[in-house]
Amino acid sequence: MRVYADNAATTQVSRSALEAMLPCFTEYYGNPSSMHQSGQDAARLLINARETMAKYLGASPNEITFTSGGSEADNQAIISAALRGARKGKKHIISTKFEHHAVLHAVEKLGKEGFEITLLDVHEDGIVRLPKLEAAIRPDTALVTVMYANNEIGTIQPISEIGALCREKGVIFHTDAVQAAGHLEIDVTKQNIDMLTLSAHKFHGPKGIGLLYCRKAIPLSTLIEGGAQERGKRAGTENIPAIVGMAAAFREACENMAVNMPRVRALRDRLIDGVLARIPEVILNGDREKRLPGNANFSVTGIEGESLLLLLDNAGICASSGSACTSGSLDPSHVLLAIGLPHETAHGSLRLTLSEYNTQEEIDYIIEALPPIVEKLRMMSPVWKKK
Amino acid sequence: MAYSQKVMDHFTNPRNVGEIEDASGVGEVGNMKCGDIMKIFLKIEDDIITDVKFNTFGCGAAIATSSMATELIKGKHVEEAMKLSNQAVVEALDGLPPVKMHCSVLAEEAVRSAIQDYYNKIGREMPEEYKLKCEGCCEDCSKK
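^ Those are the sequences you sent over. The predicted structure of the assembly is below.
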């Protein structure tokens, strides 16, 4: 059996997204900037896609800027807010310790260029505390950027409350909603979100496309200079096939959210309960309730994540880990360290992320396959024997 | 990053896993912070390694290099075993990805550490060039 349980990394493109995209390669391949019919056909697709994305986010179409993906949108949001702040003498930015690197590294770079950075604790449960945020906001705070839901441990942040607080304090609020979009309800207007990032390939859309929502009142700065595409905020010929695919996937995800997400949540709970019951000395990382419907993240005492992933892969199961060996550095995941895990526990983390394409049979297969693999690695671990 | 077939073979079917209760020498290197710990047990008779076992906490490469290192020193004279280089382990495994080279260094150090322990027990001086240089931090090995 092959089980794909790494949907937080990327997802399979949905049938409807693929079918929406295909004519863009062969029929509607014109450049939306061209005057002729072919170009105008493409321009119409672009308008429709922008309207779809805006509708399901609770935004206006002219508040949507298409980007190459989540990382670009995060960077553009943060740099725009920082430059706007600097013009007003505000050079303080608040974020959290467990943001995605697209946010964290952008913020750290600004830190080297004279901005003062406050990174909020996310506590053992992986959730930011509102009073701590309120205490951190200063008269010179230019931006608060807090992710909607964490990519590794899936914990959902109190976005509506943060939005209301930031609006009251007059501070720009950006949220990286890459893991949340298509899985959780989002309404940028109701939630007082000034800027929001999403990426299509996390909700069964294509890779290489995302967007930045930016409220009308806030000026965007450009990262890429060139033509006047995207109202002059993002140069480069629009990736029409990807944009159309993203809109189709997002519509599908949002329209079916009320049906799909309870089902995914039930699969996740079956997985979490099964793993915790079958394997001793395993802990679930992140709050049990306030987490993404598809996210399960465990720490398996006594073993290292990469070897666990390799054996799972041999058994046909695609998963991920926050161990140093899989992060490409010598340190385990900054997310797991931020929630206070010691290094040894962080090295033994296992992330299984589900989507509506997973079945109960697949979950039961994982629950059956995992215990003997963990046992095999523990039997050769000097750390496990010492216990 | 992809592992060779030999690495995958030694990782999925590691040789000489276990412990030796009355070991003549035991060596442990690495630390939890870096995420790799190797422990090697030697049974030595008349300076010949008659049995060897290992326990490893670590990635696929760490387990495979431990397995291969134990295979390479089994039946060898201790003076020959202490000359086992990380490069020999890597070659026997048909190569390792560059980011995993430190695992082979760890295997070399684990073998020497076990022989050092044996020498300490019988009161013999380890030749200077084979004395353990590992500071216990994986960053040192990555630089090698």
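Chain B has a mean pLDDT of 91. The first strand of chain B starts at residue 25 and ends at 31.

Shout if you want it in another format.
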